[in-house]
From TrEMBL, chains A, B:
Organism in which the protein naturally occurs: Theobroma cacao
Name the record gives this protein: N-acetyl-D-glucosamine kinase
Family the entry assigns: Belongs to the eukaryotic-type N-acetylglucosamine kinase family.
EC id: 2.7.1.59
Top class in the EC scheme: transferase
InterPro entries xref list: ATPase_BadF, ATPase_NBD, Euk-type_GlcNAc_Kinase
Pfam families: BcrAD_BadFG
Domain of life: Eukaryota
Domain ATPase BadF/BadG/BcrA/BcrD type, first and last residues per copy: 26-360
Molecular function, one GO term: N-acetylglucosamine kinase activity
Amino acid sequence: MKRYRNGEIWDFEHEVAVASNRQVILGLDGGTTSTVCICMPIMPFSDTLPDPLPVLARAVAGCSNHNSVGETAARETLEQVMADALSKSGSNRSAVRAVCLAVSGVNHPTDEQRILTWLRDIFPSHVKLYVRNDAVAALASGTMGKLHGCVLIAGTGTIAYGFTEDGREARAAGAGPVLGDWGSGYGIAALALTAVIRAHDGRGPHTMLESTILQTLGLSSADELIGKFIFSSLTVSETSQKWFGSVTKWTYADPSWARIAALVPVVVSCAEAGDEVANKILKEAVQELALSVKAVVQRLGLCGEDEKNSFPLVMVGGVLEANQRWDIGREVMDFISKDYPGALPIRPKVEPAVGAALLAWNDLMKECLQEAYRS
Amino acid sequence: MKRYRNGEIWDFEHEVAVASNRQVILGLDGGTTSTVCICMPIMPFSDTLPDPLPVLARAVAGCSNHNSVGETAARETLEQVMADALSKSGSNRSAVRAVCLAVSGVNHPTDEQRILTWLRDIFPSHVKLYVRNDAVAALASGTMGKLHGCVLIAGTGTIAYGFTEDGREARAAGAGPVLGDWGSGYGIAALALTAVIRAHDGRGPHTMLESTILQTLGLSSADELIGKFIFSSLTVSETSQKWFGSVTKWTYADPSWARIAALVPVVVSCAEAGDEVANKILKEAVQELALSVKAVVQRLGLCGEDEKNSFPLVMVGGVLEANQRWDIGREVMDFISKDYPGALPIRPKVEPAVGAALLAWNDLMKECLQEAYRS
């Protein structure tokens, strides 16, 4: 992506001939691999949204990872992707009514406040600004902007996030790999790798996962999985092993969780071929994922007192989308339905950045209606 | 530690008046937090070793972590600690008969070869050089240099390593935190942290661990444990959370496994106070640790055909040494004894660097005897 020098990001605004007085909303989904910004027009009040949704422009920027590109570049990437979306849609900042930036890790009002302060520097004061956790945008991408129900995300990581119609919220899991996100793609794959090591050193039963995973990774022995962090109470190996070179070891060679999570399809194929160990790993993952949803539903009382009320259950992420014979998403849904027959599964048809835009639109409409009632 | 410029490390050799023609052995235990070198005199042939062992000098250097200090400095640290030990003992390199460098992560002949090549540059060609996995030095620290039996190390990480008298070897676990070292200090503490999160978000039962761990860490809520790597299929939070500052989160703030493992005593105290969750975590850890030993014993046939042969079982590491009412080491031993009544528990009285020196001494004696027989 072309990088503008500071201050030049918004230069296009002097050149663009703004088509009309059409007002727009920006929805952003900010991640490490890519950053997406959607520009939508303000839609008229209505009970049903137009289908397809009128998306004016979609801009994608690369990594906005502060660790990779530094803080200045990360902020610039987000600012740039908003400018790109506006420029592509033939708009400029004066047309913007609301911005919703959905980023994971927003769990505290302090997180929200820092981002809001920075966004406030870019947009005029009448622009409504919303900063939400990315899980909220995922829920909105399934409910078309309405904050009601529960979303279950199971990709590399996993989180369940829920809202009641009166604005209470709750979450479960989403605590990362160390803290028991056991149904995540990472969790499933890490258990599969562990099963390979345990079969190899005699602690666990033989499993088809051993040959299949080693073949997938192009390794000749389970020893090669063992990383440079082999540690004991006495010494820590990363020093010596890194220092003295040594064979390339797979597991810890690249600490990216996603790289490990990418092994999930291998686990599914072994389970489909009848491997007991792989089947057990997937069954436990299903229970873990269902448990996260149940914890949220229970705490919020989404199912009502008789546990039969209906509520949307938005399901997203690679682990739930695998459309294979061993269908993790369907199994999770079956588990949840037993306790909460009112859970209505939804697979979002739009991406989270659109969910973010719809969140902003929904809130904006509510405020407008309230103002209309007051006046 | 004072750093010498290249080549000056061995300058002391010109100044030291070598006391006698006494020959010495160096034993090294190289780690990330510290590096220990022991200088011992060659002891006479004997069935029993002198008690206490005649240690001429002990030198300690700081971190030899290549990641922290760079490759050149890491090598220099090891070279320096050997020079210090020799200098303190009033010896120089011409007095050295053998060097044993014990470093974890030495799992392949290629690892060994790289280190040997570098050691060969420092010492004259008649000096015997041995490079071993640190677990082997731990075993030798319990068996006084004899490679027979099994060692179980359970500190931050865990590994079981065994040798038969005819030189076969086997290991189990030691694969690091991702690959199922579940009985390690890190494993125990990670499960305790997970239990706190699960109690907090409604996925798990209430546990005393919640208040105790939060109090120990000076945190006000379990939310503060959740780190900056909260991830989903949609976006990865480390970017945004790091970038926008946010509350200090504990778990991922410092990726050191040892920092997490330091919570083991808290888990033990909760278990002693009757907490079910903490008790379950420790009981499972005991089974895991016992399983590692059993896997090694089984593969090597250390227990003989009737499973009653006696063999040394060396137990080291903070997890096994906790001398509390809930004694993990004793429980592990009880578990192992049920299957292998011949397992003889040993708590080493000397440190691994001494174990390394004894390994070198033992091998040296064997070679001398063989030469004596041949001539």
